């Protein structure tokens, strides 16, 4: 018994959920016990491996279900492109996941692999957070008939739908940060903030390159693998396809907001420069005639009547003041400042 517990603690756990005739049970197993579980007659088994920190366990699971070594490598090595593999009597789907850190203004990318063979579903998740827990919660509550009477095709659609919806949540979180950034940028253009915008824009380009592949993956499932799904569950797959299209639209909208923020910054900086140039132009316009008058009376010719006049100096100053005020009033009337 002690030996078994020690073995259990050393090897990462696989969470196993079994369902049949409206009932379900949850347990934790080790990879060497897979054969004992799969031999039991059951309507559905869902194995979840949340932390990809042991290559041996992944290889054991992959070998047991008949995955090619290259597909096992795709599970071990993260940041793979969304793809659908059909190595025989099973499907392997790779779906990227994204998380947003508003404090660091950083996008983190992970992935989830879904393996489906007959009544067995295996999910490999690399995220520290259990992204699939909402599906398990629905199964536990069992408020809807589909979650009380589970079938592999419906569970597959539910997991896929959750992942695509999380893309929408991720983009909503980014949009909130973008709105705050846009408000800050419009109030006080900051070159440092512009650098953050450029960095986020590069990250969003990476997201935008991935999302069309997700939609293509769901479309391929609907068009080429419809025989894997019961007819009443194809509508859920179609719904996932619609959500993936919505994700693309959200990505496009967020990228447009980022581009708009860059244009806004450049426009504000240009306006700020123009305001400064306008002030300089107003000052120059006012002092040009005054400089001309000062230049004329600074030539020191001997025969200049005003130079010998007792009130010449104050009259010239008064004349320059009147000209300056007059030009300023004229420019004010023209809305120059």
Main traits of this protein?
337 residues, 7-stranded mixed beta sheet, disordered N terminus, 11 helices, Methane Monooxygenase Hydroxylase, Chain G, domain 1, Beta Polymerase, domain 2, alpha+beta, 2 domains
Describe this structure in words.
This protein has 11 helices and 7 strands. The chain is rod-shaped. The protein starts with a helix and ends with a helix. Strands 2-1-3-7-6-5-4 form a 7-stranded mixed sheet. Strand 4 and strand 5 form a beta hairpin. Helices cover 61% and strands 15% of the residues. The N terminus is likely disordered. The chain has 2 domains: 268 residues, 2-Layer Sandwich (Beta Polymerase, domain 2), CATH 3.30.460; 56 residues, Methane Monooxygenase Hydroxylase, Chain G, domain 1 (Up-down Bundle). It is of the alpha+beta class and 337 residues long.
Mean pLDDT comes to: 82
The major beta sheet can be summarized as: 7 strands, mixed
Structural class: alpha+beta
Instruction: Assign a percent range to the helix content.
Output: 55-70%
Q: How is the largest sheet built, in terms of strand order? A: 2-1-3-7-6-5-4
**CATH 2nd-level architecture of the largest domain:** 2-Layer Sandwich
Q: Give the count of helical stretches.
A: 11
> What's the structural domain tally?
2
SSE arrangement, N to C: HEEHEHHEEEEHHHHHHH
pLDDT < 50 stretches: 1-12
């Amino acid at each position: 018994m002690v030996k078994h517990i020690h073995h259990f603690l050393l090897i990462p756990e696989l969470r196993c959920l079994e369902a049949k005739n409206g009932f379900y049970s949850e347990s934790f197993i080790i990879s060497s016990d897979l054969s004992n579980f799969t031999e039991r007659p059951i309507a559905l088994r869902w194995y979840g491996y949340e932390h990809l920190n042991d290559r041996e366990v992944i290889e054991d699971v992959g070998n047991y279900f008949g995955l090619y070594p290259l597909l096992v490598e795709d599970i071990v090595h993260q940041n793979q492109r969304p793809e659908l593999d059909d190595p025989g009597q099973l499907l392997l789907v790779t779906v990227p996941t994204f998380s947003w850190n508003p404090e660091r203004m950083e996008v983190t990318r992970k992935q989830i692999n879904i393996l489906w063979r007959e009544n067995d579903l295996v999910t490999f998740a690399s995220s520290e957070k259990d992204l699939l827990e909402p599906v398990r919660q629905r199964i536990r509550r069992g408020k809807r008939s589909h979650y009380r009477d589970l079938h592999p095709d419906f569970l597959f659609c539910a997991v896929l739908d959750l992942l695509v919806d999380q893309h929408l949540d991720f983009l909503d979180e980014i949009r909130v940060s973008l709105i705050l950034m846009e408000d800050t940028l419009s109030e006080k253009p900051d070159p440092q903030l512009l650098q953050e915008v450029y960095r986020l824009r590069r990250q969003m380009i990476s997201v935008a390159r991935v999302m069309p592949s997700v939609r293509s993956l769901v479309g391929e499932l609907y068009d080429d693998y419809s025989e894997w799904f019961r007819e009443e569950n194809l509508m859920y797959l179609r719904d996932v396809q619609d959500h993936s299209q919505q994700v693309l639209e959200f990505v496009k909208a967020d990228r447009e907001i980022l581009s708009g923020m860059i244009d806004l910054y450049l426009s504000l900086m240009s306006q700020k420069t123009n305001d400064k140039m306008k002030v300089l132009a107003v000052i120059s316009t006012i002092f040009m005639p005054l400089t001309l008058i000062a230049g004329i009376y600074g030539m020191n010719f001997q025969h200049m009547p005003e130079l010998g006049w007792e009130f010449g100096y104050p009259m010239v100053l008064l004349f320059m003041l009147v000209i300056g005020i007059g030009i300023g009033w004229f420019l004010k009337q023209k809305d120059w400042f």
